[in-house]
Amino acid sequence: MPVGGCTMLCVLPLLLNTVLGFKLCPSHCLCYESSDLVDCRSRGLVWVPPSVPHGTWLLDLSGNKLTEVRTRSFVGLWSLKILLMSNNSIQTLQPQSLSSLEFLERLDLSFNQLRWLPQDFSQSLSSLQELRLDHNLLQHLDSASLGEFENLRKLDLSYNRIRAMDVGTFSGLSRLSLLNLEGNKLNVLKDGLLSRQQSLEVLLLGHNNISAIETEALAPLRSLTLLGLQGNQLQHIRFKTFLKLQTTTTHLQMSSNPWICDCELQRVFVKIHRVRHLLVYDYKDIICHAPAQQAGSSLASLDSQLCVTETASVLVITITVMLAVIGALVKAEHNRKNKQAASDAESDGQEK
């Protein structure tokens, strides 16, 4: 009997495909029915395979040759919880490429070639808790692409090429507990960037180019337990900036920076040590870069010498100035007396 210009024989395969979509396994992949896992690792795949069983909760596509993820590549995979696509050559995520993944909890896109994220990147991923984007080529982040990750706990953006981030980049990530930005090209940690991260416990900023931390940048981080700042371009820091960290206990990693070891720097670290909840984890590894006479010495080994030397220098300068002033006063008084004597002698001569 015809159905829309086609016999039931035409419609039957379509119906079977729809029904069996829960059972079919993509060619070159391994499907484990008992656990709903689909293993497509290192199969030489150049696109996301069709016919992934609809009941799949873990899909592993890592180690393939994917260069892009096309629109609606995962349509129908409502049960998917974990999607692994690391170690491919992905350059582009097309719009709506991750649509229908409302229940996805973990996404791994590390070790790819992504230069940017689409504006709708977070729109269909409201359940996501862990996102890995490390070891890509990202240069800039904005709030549009990350704005709807309201349940995200862990975000790894390490070893990209990020130079700048909009102040509102992380404004929608209020439940974030770990943020890894190591190995990028950041220059300044700005006020307001982490204004919504009261739940953040670990902030890793090591091996960037950070030379300045603005005064209020760390203030919102009420739960921070670890702050990694090693391997940056810090020469001086302000005590007030770290005093803003009102936490229970925060470990600081500060080594491998080009520190200018002077009395001011030593005083800052002495003050930090006096704050019970701030612990400089690698204090003994903080090495002086300048001045020349201190280069290569650890700040800890100098103890209070820097301030003693500075105090001695100040005293020498003060004494020198005082002696100069006294000398000037003595000379002035001497000149005054000479002038007075000359004036008196001239007056006596005129009287005679």
Annotation keywords:
352 residues, alpha/beta, twelve-stranded mixed sheet, two-stranded parallel sheet, 6 helices, 24% helix, 15% strand
The stretches of 5 or more residues where confidence is low (pLDDT under 50) are 1-22
Net shape: elongated
Task: List how many beta strands DSSP finds.
Answer: 20
Radius of gyration: 34 Å
Query: What portion of residues belong to β-strands?
Result: 15-25%
Number of helices: 6
What separation lies between the terminal Cα atoms? 155 Å
- Average pLDDT: 88
- Widest sheet: strand ordering: 1-2-3-5-7-8-10-12-14-16-17-19
Query: Given the helix and strand composition, which structural class is it?
Result: alpha/beta
| SSE pattern | HEEEEEEEEEHEEEEEEEHEEHEEHH
List the helices and strands and how they pair.
Layout: H1 8-20, E1 30-32, E2 37-39, E3 58-60, E4 68-69, E5 82-84, E6 92-93, E7 106-108, E8 130-132, E9 140-141, H2 143-146, E10 154-156, E11 164-165, E12 178-180, E13 188-189, E14 202-204, E15 212-213, E16 226-228, H3 239-243, E17 250-253, E18 259-260, H4 263-274, E19 278-280, E20 288-290, H5 299-302, H6 305-351
Parallel strand pairs: 2-3, 3-5, 4-6, 5-7, 7-8, 8-10, 9-11, 10-12, 12-14, 13-15, 14-16, 16-17, 17-19, 18-20
Antiparallel strand pairs: 1-2
Helix pairs in contact: 4-6
